[in-house]
Amino acid sequence: MGSFTKFLSSRKGKILFNLAYSWGACLVIMGAVFKISHFPYDDLFLLVGMVTEVVVFFITGFDAPPEEYKWERAFPMLRRGKGDKDSADNGGLLPDDIQTIGIRKKLEEMEEHIDAMNKIFEKQVGELKAQMDVVTEMGRAFDKIKAANNGTLENSGYIQRETKDVAEKIAALNSQYSRMLEAMNIKSGSK
Fold first, then answer.
1. Each residue of 169-186: pLDDT tens digit?
2. Structure letter (DSSP) for residue 61
3. Does the keyword Transmembrane apply (predicted)?
4. Are 20 and 52 in contact (CB under 8 A)?
């Protein structure tokens, strides 16, 4: 029986078993449909399908049960309470639990570093905002100076013309005063 069980566990055995199981089910269903519809050979199809299913179910008894998985390897908390040697040596903690605690500590340290970095970032953002406010104020002041200069430049031609006109009038007045003084000097010298 060992070689038969081994054959059933092999890939070819599983394929053959699956074919026999499927064909037997098909013959049973077809025999039932033939029986209900009163087609010829209905009893034959039903009989062959049922016998095939009986053989398949009989062979199933020789199939090896499915392998049980060791879930406690993936989920160490399933091992607790079984009196493992590892859990007694580490104060009830299993090696996987110790590793989990280490990972948890590393994550907490990372979280602290991230919080510190966030505080530094917030401080830098505040300083940058203050600097931007100063730059904005300086820009406004420069705009005022520029506007004043633009007004001065636009008015500078007018100021130059007016200054020239005033200078010409002062020169004319000076020449008139000179003549008046000369006329007065001549009269005072002729006495």
1. 888 888 887 888 787 777
2. T
3. yes
4. yes
The encoded tokens of residue 143 equal 């705009």
Q: Which two tokens stand for residue 94?
A: 């299993």
Give, for 8, the enclosing helix (H) or strand (E).
helix 2-9
Residue 29 has pLDDT above 60, yes or no: yes
d(CA 99, CA 107): 12
Query: How far, in whole angstroms, is CA 59 from its chain's centroid?
Result: 55
Q: What is the pTM of this model?
A: 0.33
Alpha-carbon distance 145 to 139, whole Å?
Answer: 10
Give dist(CA 186, CA 191) in Å, integer: 9
Rg (CA), the chain: 56
The C-alpha atoms of residue 100 and residue 143 are separated, in whole angstroms, by 63
Strand, helix or coil at 64?
coil
**Tens-place pLDDT, residues 140-169:** 887 888 777 776 666 677 777 888 888 888
Tokens of 126: 């505040």
